Amino acid sequence: MSRTTVEMLRAYLMTASLLAMCMDGAIVTAALFFHVPDAIFEGSMFRLVALTMLVVHCGGKRLRSPVSLPERARWRLVNGCL
User: Fold this and answer.
1) How far is it, in rounded angstroms, from Cα 28 to Cα 63?
2) Model-level pTM greater than 0.90?
3) CA distances from 26 to 17, 41, 66 (A)
4) Collapsed DSSP state (helix, strand, coil) of residue 8
5) pLDDT in tens, 29-69
6) Is residue 69 within 8 Å of 4, Cβ to Cβ?
7) What is 25-79 written as a DSSP string?
8) For residue 10, how many other CB atoms are within 10 A of its CB?
9) CA neighbours within 13 Å on the CB side: how many for 12?
10) Reduced to 3 states, what is the DSSP secondary structure of residue 7?
11) Where are the transmembrane segments (predicted)?
């Protein structure tokens, strides 16, 4: 696997893990403070919304990036920033 691919996968995994952490926080907050039943978080509609949020967030991060991921990985490799 090339270094660029590894950097790309690392960026997507970091984005997904941050989004998952935010979603977990929102679920805990909703369950504890707003007394939302647990059954809501087990349905297919919740899964569809969660998947949509993940796709939109990853796509938005990619579109907002001023430099493409291969260029950023190349810059890190040249400057020794890993």
Assistant:
1) 30
2) no
3) 14, 11, 29
4) helix
5) 988 999 888 888 889 998 999 889 878 877 777 677 666 66
6) yes
7) HHHHHHHHHS---GGGGGSHHHHHHHHHHHHHHHHHHHHH-SS-HHHHHHHHHHH
8) 13
9) 11
10) helix
11) 12-34
* Comparison of pLDDT for 20 and 82, the residue scoring more: 20
Range 11-34 average pLDDT: 87
CA 3/CA 26 separation, integer angstroms: 35
What region, left, alpha or beta, does residue 52 occupy, with left being phi > 0 and alpha being psi -120 to 50 degrees?
A: alpha
Euclidean distance between CA atoms 14 and 66, whole angstroms = 18
Backbone angles phi, psi at 81, to 5 degrees: -100, 95
Mean pLDDT score across all residues of the chain: 81
Cβ-contact 42, 27 below 8 angstroms: no
Token digits for 44?
A: 């297919």
**Are 78 and 51 a contacting pair, CB within 8 Å?**
no
